[in-house]
Amino acid sequence: MARKPDPQVPAEILEQFKQLIGGLDSNDLHGLLPQVLAAAGVDPFTKTPVQSRRRPRRDDVVTYRVRVDLAGTKPPLWRRLELASDIFLNEFHDVIQTAFGWTDSHLHEFASGKDFYHAMAEHYLCPFQADEGEPGVPEADVRLDELLANPGDKLFYLYDFGDGWMHVIRLESVHPRDASAPRAVCTDGRRSGPSENCGGVYGYELITAALDPAHPEHAEAVVDYAQTYGDVVEPGHAPIPFDRDEINRALARPGQGESDLPGPLGELAVLLGSVAARYRFEQLIEDAKLDATVVIDADIAARMVSPYSWLLDRVGSDGIKLTSAGYLPPHHVEAAMAELGLSDQWIGKGNREIQTLPVLDLRETAQAMGLLRKYRGTLVLTPRGRAVRDDPLALWWHLAEKMPPASKDACETQAGLIFLTTIAAGSAEDADTTVAVLLTAIGWGSLDGTPMTRWMANDAAWDTKAVLRRLGALVGDPSHRRSDIATPEGVTFARAALRTWPGTT
Description:
By secondary structure, the chain is an alpha+beta fold. It contains 19 helices and 13 strands. The N and C termini lie far apart (84 Å).
């Protein structure tokens, strides 16, 4: 049906406008549109201001019972929480992260309105968004009772803008509050939580079906998963089982600025910017059983430190004259490749140190660990290097005490320490992923503000890994789907390193 002319616009004006644009091509129309809008006083890039949806804060503090659902999951995946009504959204963010097993590795955003993307929804920003000047209200300025007041009121929380995890928060009931009640507690829930970076709701449901032989779509899901990810569900993709008691233990842990861990480990835990990340690190420390004595067999210690023993003997009392560029001369590099059996670890002639990474790593880490130093163009033993040269067990303990290797880069030191923690804990998760998650929680990331990736974490922990590989404490994963796997001797060495790290014993 033809649209009737607007009676407020004279017919002759409409006819003139039709004749004006009738002969214009698309480029002409594209150039004309901004002029027409400007003449009408319209800026197409200016958003209509959103009216605030915040209400006055309550005079009293009550308990809110809320249910948080992950949109799109079938059957619904949800958690029921009881919260102090005066909790701020930045605190509520930590609670949601803990309740669902998230690791706070991505950006997030709250919104109040008909739905998250509605034009008149008011948005409450995470710190990164607020610093970038995005339109909205900083979440740390908003209390929950400003947005939820009556049963049925709802709020939205989007986590990970890539996977798009939309949490729908509904206020179920309001109750008088006991002054001794915790600020947040999980009372119920359904289904395991999704893993990070699993591909959103589709990936979560696919993985869930592939892991459950009783699922009606199990067989099809196994085929689909294998085509997409491979034949084996990696530990990092498996859903996180719902454990109410574990969630509440995490919620009850000390808050920002506090930690149960002593000394430097506690200081590192405090740097972690979320309850979920801090709990994850403290759980790794607990699993590492650092209160138990470390026992290492002398023969095993000698075998592990043999590359460093070889290098100390090679340097000897006279030292090694380095090249003008400061590297080992070719005949020493060739000897290391042949006598330490490194040829199968590197492709190349193996005669120039700068191009032979296994030898370069061995020499540089020996220096970082205080065993060797450069003096007037010569590589020489340090006093400590001379003391442990003929004592493999003492050398083993010295290397443990110096882990992670000395670095002026705080990110590298923290990455090495976290990597050692995952090894000591015997964690089944991909160690590089864990390091990336916890470094991101500390505040490290790309220059553009995006979180640490596992590849960036691998680079940050490189020197720590180099020592562990030389000791035979790490072996490659045959599937190449995760970072190197620790040997039993590697777990022992990592525990020794954490026990002897400054201030931990």
